[in-house]
Design goal:
six-stranded mixed β-sheet, four-stranded mixed β-sheet, 16 helices, binds adenosine-5'-diphosphate, binds magnesium ion
Length: 618
């Protein structure tokens, strides 16, 4: 098994082909490589510009798309068409993010149980689409700088990303024309860049403190024999450099009496840029001075530090929690590694070093460290770094067939073994008593293009409405590479299982061919998947609306009934046109028609229960 895994990582690579490392960040993204001559990791940049590409996408009304520094300029002038922080939406449903939706200047589709999409004009974009646009730009810039095609990459993700979010990141890579050889954890990449874990005999426990633009993560890692184990992660997905800027803005607004002057929003927008400038200047200087509307703006370092201390205190609380979750004392930490642009702030370094009781390690550029580590991992996969232990991994992804013939990956390619993964599924029809569990191997999005490994039926599910049964399917691969698939209905406890040899009958050449296939068909696959998903969603909405109308017929006005019926017909018709955007637009229209009365009936129902309660209590 190990042999095959290494062959896959190296065998399909041409000698001179570059594998790049990519930090796909919430605020900034960048690409790094191992320099062919110096053999050192370096971040790619155009002559005299920054290596950082802001993770911002702007869609012009004429259909043109710009990414990076160019797009960032539109944050002020055209916020509704300028998307930032898309990484936060990765693998999330609307109900996951609605608490913070108000802080976004762009529109997200508000349907509780579906994956979030961003609406710009009449177009809908998933976080995968948006991330793929950023990756495309990074690929383009890298190719321009390196003057060679770039098609293989290692991409980093936060340690807390779940399977769905990792898979979404892979999909974004595919869509951008990149073969994602591996997804690695950001703190693991940072530790690699600091040089830890490059020697088999190294045993260390490391704290990685990562304060970026809008997120904070603290991870505790154990490194031994070249294996990185994340012991715990903690943090706050809404805490970062932006909060430092906002604290300064609030302070200035108060100090210079700019509130209530009618155009406070405009003040804030301009002042936010100045605040970031001040923050950066105070990372090396003592005082910031500038002018604004005839007033002299200033900020002394001490003033700044007293403003931000409470914010940094919150990161320290997370550090305490991470240590507790890892079950270790501060003194067990051998290194504290600093990552993220905001760790340039001297007070951050001081407070973190005070907390851990040791000097922090800030010897690597905090903006670039994650990408540099990804480049090192890429080099390991290319077979150039020999002194790191490679683990046994699964050569191809393993997954299940879901609605519409889609491949749902439970164990991505290159998962190290032994390993296990589980996911919950539910029924599609009311009273459905059986569920077909079909196990597939391969990288294509439609199961018909992959290899069927096994199939069995979970039978005897008690009659329940569609969506209610909870069927947990688990994959377990033991050290010999035998896959055991189990399915269990959690409400009734019925279960079934089967053993599969995932490699049976598959030669190295087969594996290679399947990988190549998946690269050539990546774009097609993404389109087919997006269309199938849109259609499945639409069909479900049609069914639930139909049921709702039957049940609540009397409560609706003739106008409402007519509008709904028209919107349903339009959606039904759109299903045959095979156009994803059309299906989504018609789905959204039907939602728009039905939402008001659905909410009204819900409110009435709630009011009735409330009344009931009161009577009960008297
Ligand atoms: P992310 O990981 O979220 O993509 P980064 O690690 O690139 O983010 O960090 C971006 C943040 O770092 C921004 O808030 C930016 O203002 C801040 N930053 C960059 N340089 C400095 C500096 N010299 N001093 C203080 N903060 C800085
Ligand atoms: Mg980062």
């Amino acid at each position: 098994m190990a042999k095959i895994a290494i062959n896959i990582a190296t065998g399909s690579l041409q000698q001179d082909e570059m594998i790049v490392g990519i930090d796909l960040g919430t605020t900034n993204s960048l690409v790094a490589i191992i320099h062919p001559e110096s053999k050192m990791p370096v971040a790619l940049k155009e002559y005299d510009s920054s290596s950082l590409v802001p993770s911002v996408v702007h869609f012009d009304t004429n259909g043109s798309v710009v990414v990076g520094a160019e797009a960032k300029k539109f944050l002020l002038s055209d916020p509704a068409r300028t998307i930032f922080s898309a990484k936060r939406l990765m693998g999330k449903t609307y109900s996951d993010v609605k608490g913070n939706a108000a802080s976004l200047a762009y529109k997200i589709i508000d349907d509780e149980n579906r994956l979030v999409k961003v609406q710009v004009g009449g177009q809908f974009y998933s976080p995968v689409d948006l991330s793929s646009l950023i990756l495309k730009e990074l690929k383009k810039q890298a190719e321009h700088i390196l003057k060679t095609p770039v098609s293989k990459a290692v991409i980093t993700v936060p340690a807390y990303f779940n399977d769905a979010q990792r898979q979404a990141t892979r999909d974004a890579g595919k869509l951008a024309g990149l073969d994602v050889l591996r997804i690695i954890n950001e703190p693991t990449a940072a530790s690699l860049a600091y040089g830890f874990g490059l020697h088999k005999d190294e045993h260390k426990t490391i704290a990685v403190y990562d304060l970026g633009g809008g997120t904070f993560d603290i991870s505790i890692l154990n490194i031994s024999n070249g294996i990185f184990e994340v012991l715990s992660t903690n943090g706050d997905t809404y805490l970062g450099g932006d909060d430092l800027d906002n604290a300064v803005v609030d302070h200035w607004i108060k100090k210079y009496e700019l509130s209530g002057t009618g155009n406070e929003d405009t003040h804030r927008r301009v002042l936010r840029l100045k605040a970031e400038e001040a923050k950066k200047e105070l990372s090396s200087g003592e005082r910031y001075e500038s002018g604004y509307e005839g007033k002299e703006l200033s900020l002394a370092k001490e003033e700044f530090e007293s403003l931000i201390r409470p914010i940094i205190d919150r990161t320290i609380t997370s550090c305490t929690n991470a240590l507790k979750d890892a079950g270790i004392e501060k003194t067990a930490i051998n290194e504290v590694v600093m990552v993220g642009g905001s760790t340039r702030v001297p007070l951050v370094k001081k407070m973190v070093s005070d907390f851990f009781g040791r000097q922090v390690n800030d010897s690597v550029n905090p903006d670039e460290v994650v990408a540099l580590g990804a480049a090192i991992q890429a080099d390991i996969l290319a077979g150039n770094t020999k002194d790191v232990l490679l683990l046994d991994v699964t050569p191809l992804s393993l997954g299940l067939e879901t609605m519409g013939g889609l491949m749902d990956v439970l164990l991505p390619r290159n998962s190290k073994i032994p390993t296990k993964a589980a996911r919950q599924y539910t029924t599609y029809k009311d009273g459905q008593s059986g569920m077909k569990i079909s196990v597939f191997q391969g990288e294509r999005d439609m199961v018909k293009d992959n290899r069927r490994l096994a199939e069995f039926n979970l039978t005897g599910i008690p009659a329940m409405p569609a969506g209610l049964p909870k069927v947990e399917v688990s994959f377990l691969i033991n050290a010999d590479g035998i896959l055991v698939v189990k399915a269990k209905e959690l409400r009734s406890g019925i279960e079934q299982s089967i053993e599969v040899k995932p490699q049976y009958g598959l030669t190295d050449e087969d594996v290679e061919r399947m990988l190549l296939d998946s690269m050539t068909h990546a774009k097609e696959d993404m389109d087919a998947r997006a269309l199938t998903e849109a259609k499945t969603e639409a069909e479900q909405l049609l069914q639930t609306t139909e049921k709702f109308i039957q049940r609540n017929f009397k409560e609706l006005t003739p106008q409402e009934l007519q509008d709904t019926s028209l919107a349903m017909q339009a959606l039904q018709l759109s299903l045959d046109m095979n156009d994803k955007n059309l299906v989504q637009a018609k789905t959204e229209e039907l939602n728009a028609v039905s939402r008001p009365y659905a909410e009204r009936l819900m409110d009435e129902a709630i009011q009735k229960t409330m009344k009931g309660n009161k009577i009960d209590q008297v």
